[in-house]
Specification:
Number of helices: 8
Number of strands: 7
CATH architecture: 3-Layer(aba) Sandwich
Number of domains: 1
Largest sheet: 7 strands, parallel
Strand order of the largest sheet: 3-2-1-4-5-6-7
Helix content: 40-55%
CATH topology: Rossmann fold
CATH superfamily: NAD(P)-binding Rossmann-like Domain
Order of helices and strands: EHEHEHEHEHEHHHE
CATH class: Alpha Beta
Structural class: alpha/beta
Oligomer: single chain
Shape: globular
Radius of gyration: 17 Å
Strand content: 15-25%
Length: about 260
């Protein structure tokens, strides 16, 4: 169903080949936006692009590794050339490459995580920001791990903490331009990044919930549950649909907390 707030807007979504990025791209297209997507898989990009054009919306797709600065800049230039301006940026792409203890960590994987999770959103935003229109929205997909230290996976914790601070700084800088910048914390979600791939095969959140607890990963707190990517996309749509002067510099979280 077309949303007047997104109709004919231009939305750029990174990591849109699967998971949250794919769900967000398709939902925004259904809401009436034209879409620019990037990912590392040509097959995934082709599938998503086809689905978007079937919905009657324009789609530009770029094969991009956000850890590669040159590829990222070229993609942004191509997006502006294709659409002329940008209304929404969803910095969704992320990497969770180094999961071990700091002392035993692989320096290359540790820094690659930083490149994708911090430099990637920085470069996407930096190269597109001059062409964002009044009322623009920037949505950074971050994590609760960026607000609390962990015993392992330090690269991921540090990268998301940095992205949280980038959200706050950008919100302050772009206030005068009527561009809102917010963080979206999905919490545990059925995506390949967190090796929760099986539940993501469900066609809808309803199908996902119907699979029951046996389909869910173990070790979650009793009050938490794994979300379907479509549920996260709905929150992204909510943020993208806010009027000029709406919330900015805020954290929107789908992660649950104990009562």
């Amino acid at each position: 169903m077309v949303d007047p707030a997104l109709e004919n807007k231009i939305a750029v979504i990174t990591g849109a080949g699967r998971g949250i990025g794919k769900s967000t791209a398709l939902l925004f297209a259904k809401a009436g936006a034209d879409i620019a997507i990037c990912a590392r898989s040509k097959a995934d990009l082709s599938e998503v692009r086809g689905a978007i054009t079937t919905l009657g919306r324009r789609c530009f797709a770029g094969l991009v590794d956000l850890g590669n600065a040159a590829e990222t800049e070229t993609f942004c230039k191509d997006v502006v050339k294709e659409f002329g301006a940008v209304d929404i940026i969803v910095n969704n792409a992320g990497a969770y490459l180094e999961r071990g203890a700091f002392e035993a960590s692989d320096p290359d994987l540790w820094w690659k995580t930083m490149e994708v999770n911090v430099r990637g959103p920085y470069l996407i935003t930096r190269h597109l920001i001059a062409d964002m229109r009044k009322g623009g929205k920037i949505i950074n997909l971050t994590s609760g791990k960026g607000y609390a230290a962990g015993a392992n996976s330090s690269a991921y914790h540090v990268s998301k903490a940095a992205l949280n601070m980038m959200t706050d700084g950008l919100a302050n800088e772009l206030w005068a331009r009527d561009i809102d910048v917010n963080s979206l914390v999905p919490g545990p979600t059925a995506t390949a990044t967190f090796q929760n791939a099986s539940p993501a095969d469900a066609k809808s959140p309803e199908d996902f919930l119907a699979q029951g607890s046996e389909a869910l990963p173990k070790g979650l707190p009793a009050w938490e549950r794994v979300k379907h990517p479509d549920e996260v996309a709905e929150m992204a749509l909510h943020l993208a649909s806010q009027p000029i002067g709406g919330p900015t510099g805020q954290i929107y979280s789908l992660a649950r907390r104990p009562m």
